Every structure is written in C-alpha cells, then in structure tokens.
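Blinded run. Sample ID left blank on purpose so nobody reads anything into the name before looking at the predicted structure. Input follows.
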Amino acid sequence: MKSLTRNIIFSFCLLMTFSSLKGEIIEIKHMNEIHPYVQPNTFIVFDLDNTLIEPTQELGTDQWFYYQFLKYQKDGMPVAQSLDKALAEWHAIQLLSPVKIVEQGSAEIIKALQKQNFPMIGLTTRGLVLSYCSVDQLRSVNVDLALTAPCQNEVFFKSGKHYVLFHEGTLFTNGSHKGTAFCTFLEKSGYLPKHVLFINDKASHIREIETACGERNISFTGLRYGYLDEKVASFQEKVAELQFEQFGKFLTNEDAHQLLNN
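Blinded prediction complete.
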C-alpha cells in the first residue's frame, strides 16, 4: 500500500512538472529526448547552427566565429569592428562550406514529427544573405522545415534596427532580438500557437524566446541541446587557423592535422 501511494505521488509530481513547463529550460543531450515535451498543439522551433547543422570542418563553426571575434579584440581591434569582420568572414565561409547533420537521426525525428503534422520552423540569427544558402544546407542533410511550417509565404519586416525574413520554413532574425522577431512573425503571419517548444544549443537565445512568449501568455518550453558541448569546449584553433589560411580548399580536420604534424 505504501509502495502504491508512493507511486501515485511520484506520478502526480511528474504530471505537475510537465503541466508547469511554461518558462522552463531543460537540458538535453540527444535529439530523441525532445519527445516527452511535444504535447498536442505544440509549435516546434529549431535553431540551426550547432543544433541541426554544422560545417564539415572546424573552420566556420559557431565556436570558430567566437574565437575569431575574440582574437580580433585581443589584437586591439574595437569590439564593433571585430564583430563585423568576424561575421563577414563567417558569412563567406557559410556560402561555400558543406555541412553535416549535428546528430545522426535528427532528420528522421523531424520527418516523423512532420508526418504527424506538428507545425515547425527554424529560427536563426543568420542574416538575410544566408537565407537561400541555409535552406540548401538543410536540404543537403534531408531536412525541409517548410513542409509543416504554419506560414508558406515569405514574410519580411523590420525588427529594431534589423530586417528579418521568413523564408522556406526558417525565420532569419539577422542579429536582432530573437524573441521580438519571433513574436512579430507570429503576429504578421496570423498564427497563434498554444505551446512553443524551442530547441537551441544556447541558453541565452532560449531566454529571449521565453521572455517574449511569457509577455504574450504563450506556454513555452526551452530545451538546451548539448550534443556538441564537448566538441565546442575542445575547439582546435590551430586546425581552424590552417583551414582559414587555405580557405577555398576546405581542408578536412584530418588533412589539417596531417599537415600540422609534417
């Protein structure tokens, strides 16, 4: 009897935890961990970089961008100029670089959710110049976020000082506040979700969506996706620097290691 009572209390606690997910950020390591948080009427939103896709080499990764940004500052370049220079270089690399899926099986998980008609989009800080390239990158790893997007038309608007574009299932916030851009998109597209599930590798970006949804009384769950945490922490700067020196050839990490060891 005590065991039964304990199980009932435990089940009730789980139910209460799940029903009070509004505003909660949860750590996950693998993409298949999203399933318990996909409720009926869930609007699923995926970040792109280090969540769905990453370059096939160290050069052009998110961690490379931040390394380059800090490096320019250490060299005495002003913060704003360092940001502009690192961002311009990162954009150039993205336009040419092949990508791979971050975690094997993610594309299949997305397809399965789309077959169940869950509304879904991508949400990224990438700029408008990368909109067509990004869609091609996603499709190269068998991901098409436009299939069950709640809006099939292009949506273009200004958010703060930046222009934002919704194109082929992905919202390109162009460096603007993700939460503000996201909710403006909802207003302009006429789509009002009951529950937003946002999967992103950066907690700070999740917080932006969390705050914006909270202000509009939209139920929200944020999943901080840590599949690449160890890889990000062990960024290979010498490999990336050599790849940057030979930009255009796209040396693999293995080839770069071999050249460095010769």
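Unblinding after everyone has recorded impressions. The longest helix spans residues 2-19.
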